[in-house]
Structures are given as structure tokens and as C-alpha cells.
Amino acid sequence: MNDDLFGGLLSSVDSLDKKYSQVIQTPVYEPSGETPHILELVDDSKTQRLIKEILSSSVSNQEKAFLIEAAHRHAVFNYELVADYYAAASAEMQNLMENSALVIIDFKKAIQHGFTNLSIDLVNQYINQPVNE
Question: How far apart are CA 39 and CA 42, in angstroms?
Fold first, then answer.
């Protein structure tokens, strides 16, 4: 790793620490009171376009299956509408939405399901990096 680059990153982080507050507040969304139709929660038009292209291709069935799985990552969720839907959903649906991290209501549950691991891993990597001055 380039020590100058890493040292520059550390000094940038140090200057940010001085410039910005370390107070972290969890964002809280207030439901609008209106329940959207479930089809409004996600825009999958790009996903569907890709799947149509994949299905009409001449690649193998295994390749098609892989590409179709990958195409689903292009779905765009409207999280405001997801939260509105969650507010009016059944308890079972709410639980399933929480398990899929569509909403995070309980931070401890989010940790339990591994949704915070990336953040924790990044912090641990940052803390454990040797500093060469």
C-alpha cells in the first residue's frame, strides 16, 4: 500500500473529525398515512429488460440462471413508499420486511441478521491498519 496515500487518508479523516460532529442520530421516518400499492414499491423495469435479453440469448441455461439472478440487483426500491407500506402491513409481512432489511426498526435485530457487518468490518479494518509516519 502506498504510505503517502494512506497517510493522506488519515489526515483527511482527522480534519473531518475536527470539522464535523461525532454525534450520530438515527433517521426516523414518519409514515404518510397512505398505503401505496405493492407494485409501487419497486421499479424493476431494467431488471425485466435484462431478463428478456438474457432469455433470448444463446448462452447456456446455467449462464442464463446466473445472469437472471444478477439482473435482480438492478431493481430500484422506493424506501419512502416501502416504509408507508410497512406501517399498514400485517405483523407477518412486517417481520418479513425487517428480515429482508427493507426497513430497520430494531438495531439489535439488524445486527443479529448481519446487516451491520460491513460497517463494523470497515471500521475494524481502519482501526487495525498500521500507521507509518
Answer: 7
Domain boundaries, the chain: 3-41+78-128
Residue showing cell 414518519: 30
d(CA 63, CA 75) in angstroms, rounded, equals 20
Q: Is the pLDDT of residue 66 over 70?
A: yes
Cβ atoms of residues 121 and 80 within 8 Å = no
State the pTM of this model: 0.61
d(CA 64, CA 54): 6
Q: Which one of 93-97, 109-113, 127-131 scores highest in mean pLDDT?
A: 93-97
- Burial tier of 94 (Cβ tally within 10 Å: 0-12, 13-18, 19+): middle
Q: Is the dihedral of CA 114, 84, 78, 96 positive or negative?
A: positive
pLDDT at 60 > cutoff 70: yes
